[in-house]
C-alpha cells in the first residue's frame, strides 16, 4: 500500500500512483502536465491564493454559474442569488465556487439571442467539464440562458441543478396592469395604428419592465422555467417565484444545499433528463399554452442526450392535452398570479393522469412524490381543471404540407379562430430588410384576407432564426382595424406574441425549402384542424421555379469566426437548431406512446 504524504492543505499526494480514485473535488479534471501529482500540487498552490482553508478544500465543490451582466435586467438579481446559493452550499457542508459564463438578454444580442444560444451552451459545457466541480448550480432566466445551460449540463453530465431568476412583477398604467412583452406589442400596435400618442407610449415604456426578473407573461422564459420544473431539473416550486420576493432567495439557498447532496449521490443529468422526463416537459409545454420556442429548446436539450423529439407524435400528444393556464398573451393573468395559485404543482396535479409519475427529479424523489409534497390545492382562477380547459387541445399544433415538407408549427391557442381554415393570396417579403422597407408602404398591394410570407429568416437565413415571425400587420390595414392575418415564415416568434402565425417552416428558405419558391399572388391554404399547409401551385411550375432558384449569396461576415461555424453546423428547427456536432445520434424518439 502506498502511504500518503500530507502537505499543509490537507489534500493527500500519492507519489508514483498514476490514477487517483475517486476523482472528486480538487482532484477532478487536472490540467495536463504529464504528472498528475504535480498538477494537483500546482492547483493547490493557486487555489490557496484565493484564501481557502484546508477544511474548505476537502469539501464537495459546487460550481455556481454567474450569468450576471449589466446588459441583462432579467438577471439583475443574480449576485444576491449567488450569495444565497453559496449559503445553502455551505450550510450543507460544501464549498461553493462561482464562475462566469456567457449571458444573453433578448434585447442585447445582435443579430438575435438564438444565434448565440449554442455559444453559451458550449461555454457552459466546457467550463463545467474543465473545472473541478462535483456538482453545479445553473442560474438562468432570460429566454436562451435556461436551454443553453441545460444543453451544456446535459453534455458535461456532471450533477447539476437549475434555478431561474424568476419573473418580474407587473407594472401599472392608468389603472391597467402591464407586463413585458405582450403589452409592449399591444401598445406598439396601438401606437402604429395612431391610437396612442408619443407621450403615452413613453409613459407605458417606463412601466413594462418595472422590476428585475424575466418577462412575466407566458413567454419563453416562463415556458422554459415551467418545462424545466416538469423535466425534473429544478427544485419543486422553483419556476414561478417572482424575482424580487424573499422566497426566491430561500429557493436559492435550498438549491445550493441540494446541490451538495447531488454531488454526494452522483445524481447526473442523464438520470434526470430521461425520455419519460422529456414527455413530462412536453406535456407541460402544451398545457401552459407555452411559447413555440419551447419546442425548439426542448428538442435541443433532448438531442444532447440522444433523444429526438418527434413533432408528429408531439402533435398527437396535443390532441389530449388541454391548455389549462390562463396567462397572457392568450389569457388574463401574469406569472405572479400563477405563483399565488400554487405554481407548477397546481398544473402538474391536474395533468397527473397524463404524466410519467415515476420520473426522478433533482429533489431525489419521483415526480409523484414531489407533487404529493406540494401544498394542498385551494380554489384559484389561474389554472383551470382538465374538465373545463381554456382550450381543449394543446397550445401548439404541428403542420405539414408541400410548403413545409419537414413541418411547421402554429400556436393555435393564440390565433383568431376564424382563421383556423383559411385560403388567401400570398404577399411575399424576400427578407427582413425587404419586410422593413415595404410593409408600411401605402402602395403595398395587400388586403385583409391575404397571407403574409417572409423568407430567409430561418436558422441559416437571417442567421439565427430571429423572432421575426410576428410580421406586423401592414400599417394601412392596421389603421382600418385589422388585428390578425395569416402569416408564414421560417422564423421564430416571441412567446409573448399572438396571432395566426405559422412558424419554423422546415426546410427553411435559405436552405432551398419550398418557402423559397413562393411568389406574391400564389394561393396558400392553411387548415389547422387537418394540420395542413399547402402552396396551391402545380408541381411542374414549382419544379421550373426550383431550377431558377439561387442560394442567397454569402455575406462578408459569413466567412470567419463563430458566424462561419454557425452557418456550417446549425441544424433546422425540428432538431432544435443545435450544432450538428454537439447533438448525440438519436437512440429514442419522444413522445414514445401517444
Ligand atoms: Fe429576458 Fe424576456 S427579455 S425574459
Key features?
594 residues; eight-stranded mixed sheet; 34% helix; four-stranded parallel sheet; binds FE2/S2 (inorganic) cluster; Rossmann fold; alpha/beta
Count of helix runs: 20
Largest sheet: 8 strands, mixed
Please tell me the overall pLDDT. 94
Poorly predicted regions are 1-10
> Could you please say which CATH topology of the largest domain applies here?
Rossmann fold
Helical content band: 25-40%
- Rounded radius of gyration (Å): 25 Å
Span from first to last CA?
57 Å
Pairing-aware structural class of the strands and helices? alpha/beta
CATH uppermost class of the largest domain: Alpha Beta
CATH architecture of the largest domain: 3-Layer(aba) Sandwich
- β-strand percent reads 5-15%
Tell me the total number of β-strands: 18
For the record, the count of structural domains works out to 4
Ligands present: FE2/S2 (inorganic) cluster
The side-by-side strand order for the widest beta sheet comes to: 10-11-15-14-13-12-16-17
| Oligomeric organization of the protein chains | single chain
Structural summary, described in words:
The chain has helices spanning 36-48, 54-57, 78-91, 113-130, 145-156, 182-192, 198-205, 220-231, 246-265, 269-272, 275-287, 293-303, 311-319, 335-340, 344-351, 367-373, 432-438, 475-478, 539-548, 561-569, and strands spanning 5-6, 12-13, 61-66, 95-100, 135-140, 160-164, 171-173, 176-178, 307-309, 396-401, 404-411, 421-429, 451-454, 486-489, 501-506, 523-527, 532-535, 588-590. The chain folds into four domains: 5-56, no CATH class; 59-169 and 211-288 and 323-373, 3-Layer(aba) Sandwich (Rossmann fold), CATH 3.40.50; 171-205, no CATH class; 396-553, Glucose Oxidase, domain 1, CATH 3.50.30. The chain is built from 20 helices and 18 strands. Helix 5 packs parallel to helix 12. Strand 16 and strand 17 form a beta hairpin. The longest helix has 20 residues, at 246-265. The protein has 594 residues and is α/β, with parallel strands linked by helices. Residues 74, 105-106, 142-143, 180, 214-215, 219, 221 line the site of FE2/S2 (inorganic) cluster (FES).
